[in-house]
From TrEMBL:
Active site: E318 (proton acceptor)
NCBIfam families in UniProt: cobT_DBIPRT (TIGR03160), PRK00105.1 (NF000996)
One term of GO molecular function: nicotinate-nucleotide-dimethylbenzimidazole phosphoribosyltransferase activity
Full protein name: Nicotinate-nucleotide--dimethylbenzimidazole phosphoribosyltransferase
Keyword tRNA-binding: no
Alphabetical UniProt keywords: Cobalamin biosynthesis, Glycosyltransferase, Transferase
EC number, UniProt record: 2.4.2.21
InterPro entries: Nict_dMeBzImd_PRibTrfase, Nict_dMeBzImd_PRibTrfase_bact, Nict_dMeBzImd_PRibTrfase_N, Nict_dMeBzImd_PRibTrfase_sf
Organism: Desulfoferula mesophila
Length: 352
């Protein structure tokens, strides 16, 4: 297994010449220049990532990383921690939102236990890669050790490597973990420099009292650990979650193999944010699936320079927004390959 440093060293710049060649084809399709807006941007971006102006429909795969959080016991979520394993079983049974939307988008779903506080035994279909039985309470002590953070990053990288080896050339990361918006808000505040209250939302539906408690917990954690944004791995260990670390590793490995990732909402965005702090070039391989209702998500996207494909007031997570956006990416590829050029159609092109 590659080390974190080895994975980062393999990430290459995009092929801008392939993007220029793709743009030349887009400009010759039977439409005014730029008339298909973001569909054209997506097609060009895919060409740059793949290093070729010949782009086919992606073979997409979704990995849902599940883990528990010690901070969930501090009243930061209206749902009890036992919902995490219950939802893992629901996803494995095909009954969750991510299953429905992935089926529509023609993407397979893999579920990975990276840190659920539950013994799944020999549950069929579950990738068992548990690093720990959840994290510690970040407001009282470090959520993870550095070694646990590295292990979880490694789990994500291994999952990405396996999916790519099995034929996937576009990845989506989803997640399941009660309480996980709290560590994500803490990390987002740290890396953006924004006040905690400006990046902390209601998660799964907190009331005003619960939101105030959540903000206090995050501020306490930041004061306790005094993390540095210049040391992202240490910050991830102190404040993060095992599924967040796994998503980070998943995105790093995808970028190292030249494979695009559609970023979902606030949790996946947090994993992406950590990945881009570890290796800024990762951002070139990311597509923002949507703009989440969680207020910190917009801050994340701005920090990474990403423009969301969709804005549908989503806040479910699991990878659902990214799975929806995959259908837009598929539309962009279809337009690129199937729309006639001016020459093909015998239509007079734009003059100058």
């Amino acid at each position: 297994m590659s080390t974190l440093e080895e994975i980062i060293a393999r990430i290459k710049p995009l092929d801008r010449s392939a993007g220029e060649a793709a743009q030349a084809r887009l400009d010759n399709l039977t439409k005014p220049l730029g008339a298909l807006g973001d569909l054209e941007r997506l097609a060009r971006h895919l060409a740059e990532i793949r290093g070729s102006a010949d782009i086919a429909q992606p073979r997409a795969a979704v990995a849902v990383f599940a883990a528990d959080h010690g901070v969930a016991q501090a009243g930061v979520s209206p749902y009890p921690a036992e919902v995490t394993p219950q939802m893992v079983f629901n996803i494995l049974a095909g009954g969750a939102g991510i299953n429905v939307l992935s089926r529509r988008a023609e993407a397979e779903v893999t579920v990975v236990d990276v840190g659920v506080n539950y013994d799944f035994g020999d549950t069929p279909g579950l990738v068992q890669a548990k690093v720990a039985m959840g994290t510690k309470n970040l407001a009282e002590e470090a959520a993870m050790t550095l070694d646990e953070a590295r292990q979880a990053i490694g789990v994500g990288a291994q999952v990405a490597n396996k999916l790519i080896a099995d034929g996937a050339d576009l990845l989506i990361a989803g997640e399941m973990g009660i309480g996980n918006t709290t560590p994500c808000a803490a990390l987002t505040a740290l890396f953006s420099g924004r006040p905690v209250a400006e990046v902390t939302g209601r998660g799964a539906g907190l009331d005003e009292k619960g939101l105030a408690q959540k903000i206090r917990i995050i501020e306490k954690a930041l004061a306790l650990h005094r993390p540095s944004p210049e040391r992202p791995l240490e910050a991830l260990a102190a404040l993060g979650g095992l599924e967040i670390a796994a998503i980070c590793g998943y995105m790093l490995e995808a970028a190292a193999q030249g494979v695009p990732v559609i970023v979902d909402g606030f949790i996946a965005g947090c994993g992406a944010l950590v990945a881009t702090r570890l290796a800024p070039a990762v951002a070139d391989y990311l597509m923002a699936g949507h703009n989440s209702v969680e207020i910190g998500h917009q801050v994340q996207l701005k920090a990474m320079g990403l423009t969301p494909i969709l804005s549908l007031d989503l806040r479910l997570g699991e990878g659902t927004g990214a799975a929806l956006a995959l259908q837009i990416v598929r539309a962009a590829v279809a337009i690129y390959n199937e729309m006639a050029t001016f020459a093909d159609a015998g239509v007079t092109g734009h003059q100058g």
